[in-house]
Amino acid sequence: MYSFKNDYSEGAHPRILEALMKTNMEQTIGYGLDEYSGKAKELIQSLVGNTNANVHFLVGGTQTNQTALAAFLKPYQAAIAAETGHINVHETGAIEATGHKVVTAKTADGKLTPSLIKEVLEFHTDEHMVQPKLVYISNSTELGTVYSKDELEKLSYFCKEYDLYLYLDGARLGAALVSEKNDLTLKDIASLTDAFYIGGTKNGALFGEALVIIKEELKKDFRYMIKRHGGMFAKGRILGIQFLELFKDNLYYNLAEHADQMSMKLKEALQEKGYQFASDSYTNLQFPIMTNEEIARLEESFRFELIEKIDEDKSVIRLVTSFATTKEGVEEFIKKL
Amino acid sequence: MYSFKNDYSEGAHPRILEALMKTNMEQTIGYGLDEYSGKAKELIQSLVGNTNANVHFLVGGTQTNQTALAAFLKPYQAAIAAETGHINVHETGAIEATGHKVVTAKTADGKLTPSLIKEVLEFHTDEHMVQPKLVYISNSTELGTVYSKDELEKLSYFCKEYDLYLYLDGARLGAALVSEKNDLTLKDIASLTDAFYIGGTKNGALFGEALVIIKEELKKDFRYMIKRHGGMFAKGRILGIQFLELFKDNLYYNLAEHADQMSMKLKEALQEKGYQFASDSYTNLQFPIMTNEEIARLEESFRFELIEKIDEDKSVIRLVTSFATTKEGVEEFIKKL
Amino acid sequence: MYSFKNDYSEGAHPRILEALMKTNMEQTIGYGLDEYSGKAKELIQSLVGNTNANVHFLVGGTQTNQTALAAFLKPYQAAIAAETGHINVHETGAIEATGHKVVTAKTADGKLTPSLIKEVLEFHTDEHMVQPKLVYISNSTELGTVYSKDELEKLSYFCKEYDLYLYLDGARLGAALVSEKNDLTLKDIASLTDAFYIGGTKNGALFGEALVIIKEELKKDFRYMIKRHGGMFAKGRILGIQFLELFKDNLYYNLAEHADQMSMKLKEALQEKGYQFASDSYTNLQFPIMTNEEIARLEESFRFELIEKIDEDKSVIRLVTSFATTKEGVEEFIKKL
Amino acid sequence: MYSFKNDYSEGAHPRILEALMKTNMEQTIGYGLDEYSGKAKELIQSLVGNTNANVHFLVGGTQTNQTALAAFLKPYQAAIAAETGHINVHETGAIEATGHKVVTAKTADGKLTPSLIKEVLEFHTDEHMVQPKLVYISNSTELGTVYSKDELEKLSYFCKEYDLYLYLDGARLGAALVSEKNDLTLKDIASLTDAFYIGGTKNGALFGEALVIIKEELKKDFRYMIKRHGGMFAKGRILGIQFLELFKDNLYYNLAEHADQMSMKLKEALQEKGYQFASDSYTNLQFPIMTNEEIARLEESFRFELIEKIDEDKSVIRLVTSFATTKEGVEEFIKKL
Lengths: 337, 337, 337, 337
Known about the structure:
4 copies of one chain form a homotetramer.
Chain A lengths: L1 E2 L10 H10 L11 H13 L6 E5 L2 H12 L4 E6 L3 H4 L12 E4 L8 H10 L7 E8 L10 H13 L3 E5 L3 H5 L8 H7 L2 E5 L9 E5 L8 H7 L8 H10 L4 H22 L12 E2 L2 E3 H8 L2 E2 L1 E5 L4 E7 L6 H10 L1
Parallel strand pairs in A: 1-11, 3-4, 3-5, 5-6, 6-7
Antiparallel strand pairs in A: 2-8, 7-8, 9-13, 10-13, 12-13
Helix pairs in contact in A: 1-10, 2-10, 11-13
Organism (chains A, B, C, D): Lachnotalea glycerini
Protein name (chains A, B, C, D): Low specificity L-threonine aldolase
Pfam family, one (chains A, B, C, D): Beta_elim_lyase
């Protein structure tokens, strides 16, 4: 049964495993202080165009978000997120676990705007309420949408004006950056946000996320926070080696391009057949609306997530493609529509 | 420069990487609900002789300790640990991060005894103090010592009598179970403790720990806790596959035996040369006492940890061997003594 | 300038201070284990019709909510509250500070219903999301509305069916119980909820809230939680003495009646003049909608809270009466309308 | 049965209650923003000789310590305390509840010294351990001892040199400042520490502690922290009024003097009778060592705490005097020796 359930159904791109294989019996220092991690950090600093950026490798997305927000916020401060934001919905309260409220804004496309944030700020007036301090966005979003450069600039200016941190969850940053709707670069993101992470797990790595901290005041003692949250990886070089490989010869972008192409193929086929979509996505997630009958039929041959009931007859499903999605899988799905 | 710094200087045993390679492009369900993880759990249940045991795979030791203790303790309850216990010293307050005090007992050999615990209980008399509820031990300990079956039984009975949970940190459980001083089995441990973990990271896995929960009341909803603490691994099968391989053909024990043998070789050579030890270890850690001069000389050719100053002239160093330690490395070290 | 800003602008009802005066130099045991606190607990047990109820006296409402919810919930569990609920808006994240998410339901009148809660439950499907476990309601609500017996019964049955705790914040319970819309008694509340508190601070005490725990499994070791959260009051008898006095000769109800009568007087006068209200309250809070001009004029002579802008011209204000509100104050306000 | 159990067995000094009585029906703004609290803050600023000091009134000692340390420390930072320190022993893990470890130093007299702190610092070397950042001392200590000006200066210089905060728990500051062994003033303390609190509860107030924050970087948004920890007192003026009265006409010092005099009377009588002491206290706590027989006999007529068994026959008891201790009570005790 072919799966469009998520972008972590397979292992890693073979080059990743080969790189691990090749270095396997070398001795290195632990906890990410090894040479490979060092080189990977330098490589990422250069890719994001900021040699002062701090780069930390962590194992997964929830861990990265939790550790970063716990480090960046004072106890009484809150994060602002879209209601659909991963930290608000799908991290089992990992942010609240560190003592911070997530305040939310309703948004149709999963993206925040200055005016949505302003409403939140205006509501929070004094010390009887939490103090919103960090804006959490994801790119691509949980709905597959992407921020344009203009949108991110406006958010960035707004956050500076209101003394807010801007944090970007890049679990699916690859898929965003190669989307046909994208006009952002890694360098843009590094210059417009205070911190962000480049997701490896969902784009060809075995696992791993690269957190990039730009703002000076957020850098201090971050390794203490990683350890405190159980995220200090003993054989840290395994993360470094993966990111070194991912960013060699454009592999990271190539893998994301494949994922997006497979997704657009699905989208176009679905559009041709007249399906509506719950979100207009140009990345590796598609949200077609189908009748329950159609869904039941497709479930006989494919795995995917059921996202939401629209009414008695119709529901939204989610189709996810990845670096590993095969043309054959996609074509078979289209045939079965 | 050969390293005796720790037991995670290398990658994984080649069989581990091969197993990952072989299954790499299969599609599986995420988050440890896949077939490989399922089989690995069953295998471990059978090895520990308890088919009702809950088995969870986590990425690292601090994460496992933090998640387990946060799940097992009520907010006002505390863990009791040896002063040298990993959770007390080397986890950057990961237990306190979840709101729990670690109360400690002084002990020369890193092991707790009923009478040490009793003293702690007698000191904590009412609601103005934390309520000690969980006894944390490590086997082998941070000093390389191991618990005998008799010692563990006495602890176990004591804990039952005083309504305490007994939790065993098995980061180096392999090294303990194959030590010449050991008379415990995995089944003994499962029947004498309420929960424990089998360490993979320090015994040949790329990474990973297998938490085994025995006591019924500690099992409920544990996966929520894993996710909340950022430890729910997306490609969970990677952990399952590793543990399946580790416990095939006795690999786990063979690797630990190699580590202990290399360590005993160092110990015997050191003893012959007349060195004293800070701890009488029969596992993969050795703590010889050396003059600062000797240490400086050895540091020119080898990497190891400096543990503690004894006086102006002498210090304790720590030598760690692992599945990957080479005979040549050990012989070279001995030659340089 | 007469104040309708809140119900804690004045000190205590004179009888409260006299009771403190009379017992002032007696020696008692600390921390609420004294005779006065003992008697007050028994009195409240008898008033709520449950001699097994646990009664704890705490200093304030946020402290009570925080301590209770932290005690009742497991780390990954969440509270469900109306979007307007005090714990969601006005406690500076005190619930999140203890690691718990507050998930909310939108409601026009500040009250929760089974169907609103059901929606929340249906959204939270697995371990990737928090587990809603406790329903938080306030009576009277932050909008001055009250739950009818029928409504509370339906909530209670629903919570039992879905294995949820029902917790009632009674910061303004007096005002609710004497409202002309009320048909609940303290005994009803004790039999329909799992825990609730009787607010003293906002109804004539100098300060103090009486938490009543009904459900057996929530009682254990609660005093540890009070101390852990800094709420164990050294001279605990001061709380006991106040509640003993409050519930002597119906004082508690009489004070609330006065507050509600003053409020209804304001309401009727405002209605006569044709004002609309943002909430249809029959307790001690009124929410008239006024033009900004009118508000500005009234602010020259009175203190009150500005709650929300309706549009460019109109806003909602909040008028609060209390045990201490004078007829003269009310009449003067009405005159100035 | 006369009680020497603690210094909060009685209510408040009558002048405190009279001051509350006199202002009782005035309307003021809530949460400590009223005029009385304002004046009390100014008065304390002037008494401590620092008009920039921030003064906050809180309800009790554990709440004050918890809120202050949670505000001052970053998540991975720890407090250093004497093993006997209140935050380490008698606050049910209230500091750990906010995520911070308390690391301790063994000390015979309850006092910390630079060399004891230095040992702690040297042990904590990197990000695998918590980062000690705040030195917690109490004056008078839990053993009744006091810091001399010279000792506090040395601590202060040391803390500045090592970039540590110095925090003084003044639950019994009155008793310390009037002790015959004292040479410190409030002004000295304000110039030598970064924050401290002046205890009201144990020196004649009904309840209340005045936290004084000296160091600029610790001041920001502190009211958010008070609210978040459930310590924002609705009728805040009740705290302000009490401190205004306490520091009028030297009342605070006079009450402490009485307490210390009663204590010294006990001490001298005990010394005359040849009793040994577990601590050489010149404040309001005395720790005589008695045979169990003697203790049993005295317990027939008096209440006091049993602190510790010395051996089979002898134990340490604690006698506490207060502003309210009567000469008759003391004389009767002496007679019964």
